[in-house]
Amino acid sequence: MTDPAWRYHRRVTSRPAVSLAQRKRQLVVDELTEAAFRLLTAQGFDAVTVDEIAADAGVSKRTFFRYFASKEDVIVRFLADLGTGIAAGLAARPAAEPPSAALRHAVSVPLAACGEHGDRALRAVQLILRTPALHARFLERQADWREELSAELARRQGRDPATDLYPRLAAGMALTAFGAVLERWSDSDGAADPAALTAEAFAVLAPALDAP
Amino acid sequence: MTDPAWRYHRRVTSRPAVSLAQRKRQLVVDELTEAAFRLLTAQGFDAVTVDEIAADAGVSKRTFFRYFASKEDVIVRFLADLGTGIAAGLAARPAAEPPSAALRHAVSVPLAACGEHGDRALRAVQLILRTPALHARFLERQADWREELSAELARRQGRDPATDLYPRLAAGMALTAFGAVLERWSDSDGAADPAALTAEAFAVLAPALDAP
DNA sequence: CCGTTCGTGTCACTCGGTGTCAAGACGCTA
DNA sequence: TAGCGTCTTGACACCGAGTGACACGAACGG
User: Fold this and answer.
1) What radius of gyration do chain B's Cα atoms show?
2) A172 to chain B: nearest residue by CA?
3) Which nucleotide is at minimal CA–C1' distance from A47?
């Protein structure tokens, strides 16, 4: 799950690039995720038990918890994985770029990934935003992203995060924008353009983000 | 719990101002909250069961859940109740006041209440910020506050929340400041001054909050 | 004094989540 | 090909959060 790209590797030598065991593990992950999505989106989060998801995927409940930390994890990971690269995305931006533009690009990475996945990502977002338990877990993840973003911002601008509130606030603002865009996108059933919404949101935040 | 002021009413006629049943209920709430605080702060959130809290307060587990929706609720409610008035606090500010100042005052209300409760509030905040399960629930509450704040901001400025991102973003910024202040206050073991931190945070946000 | 209402404890149950263990599949080596 | 260690799995037992049902007793109203 950490690097989905492996799935497209092809065996070129007598030894496979990825082991059989790895492929089997990925197969189970996919099957479980698929089953969870189908059942949860159809019947609601609370109406489906972990046993049902596991049975639908053809494994035991115990095995489910060997792959996912919690019932929420199956769904949240879908988005959460997208956000892990957010701080790295910021680090990749040129140092001369103003914070508002750099942060906008960093946040656009997971947002763009959302758009690509199309229907699956949209349903995940809608399910998360409408289910309190999932929403809570998602916010927890966002708090982790905020720490990373904050640290990277402090490094980038040579600020001391222990005394200076700016990095923490700027990271929070960027994620506020992220959340707002996700909400609009979800409410519009995918009709709204995430990139346009992001630009609009950062236009509002820019005066504070780029203040001297 | 919705109106703690009743506790200070005194009986002036032959009929008590509040019924015996009400006072008994409040007594149970206090006892349960007290027990939860003592046990959870001493041993950690996961190391204490609801049965233990209930037994310590002299009631059954079933009764605990008649007063609190979940184990997290006992602690989170402590802060959550403070935040319910945030939107009302904003509504009470003069219409001519710039958003940054109005929001700062609105957010200061629960923050000031924190300072008054002294040690109890500090321990609650520290427990919440250090316990993932509690943190998640707290963030959920904050999301509720954000909706209220957002609606009140839209009303206040005559903006349409369906098309205009500003109210949603401004509310998010205010709560980002709130969270940052809480974090600093918690990390400093109560040494930092919430009011000063709040002023500092809103100085950063003001350019975006008050932009034309 | 009696019927009603309300709060409570007990019991039984569901479900999320974990520890343990034995059995099977795989890879390596002789 | 037989044997051996490693990894994954399912089965089972178990804990704790949370809920529904019911019966009991105390307070309230007539």
Assistant:
1) 19
2) B176
3) C15
